[in-house]
Amino acid sequence: MAVTTTRADQYRQLARDFHLIAREERSAMLKMAEELDHLADEQEHASSRADKDDTYSRKGPREGHRP
After folding, report:
1. Residue 67 has pLDDT above 60, yes or no
2. Of 17, 41, 52, 20, nearest in space to 9 by CA
3. Number of C-alpha atoms within 13 angstroms, CB side, residue 50?
4. What number of helices (H) and strands (E) belong to the chain?
5. d(CA 45, CA 34)
6. Cβ count near 58 (within 10 Å)
7. Cα–Cα distance between 38 and 32 in angstroms, integer?
8. pLDDT tier at 48, thresholds 50, 70, 90
9. How far are the Cα atoms of 50, 57, 58 from residue 67, in angstroms, in the given order?
10. Residue 58 pLDDT > 90
11. In percent, how much of the chain has pLDDT > 70?
12. What CA–CA distance (Å, rounded) separates 14 from 22?
C-alpha cells in the first residue's frame, strides 16, 4: 500500500522539523549564554582578588613586621 502525501502535508512536516530544530538550538544557545555568564563572573572574581594581592605587594610588608 503506497502512502501519498500532499504538498501541504510535506510543508507541515517541514514546519514541524524546523520548530524542533529551533527549540533544540535555542536550548543550546541558552546553555552557552549561561556558561559564558558564569565564566565572566569567575574572571571578575579572579581579577578582583589579583587586584587586592597587587595592592598589598605594592604597599610592602606591614610596618614593624619582619619577614
Report:
1. no
2. 17
3. 6
4. 1, 0
5. 17
6. 7
7. 10
8. confident
9. 22, 13, 16
10. no
11. 78
12. 12
State how far the alpha carbon of 25 is from the alpha carbons of 7, 15, 28, 53, 63, in Å.
27, 15, 5, 42, 59
Average confidence (pLDDT) over 47-66: 67
How many residues in the chain?
67
Extract the C-alpha cell encoding 58.
605594592
3-class secondary-structure state, position 3: coil
Q: For 1-67, where are the E strands, in sequence order?
A: none
CA distances from 15 to 10, 12, 23, 29 (A): 9, 5, 12, 21
Q: Cell 520548530 appears where?
A: 19
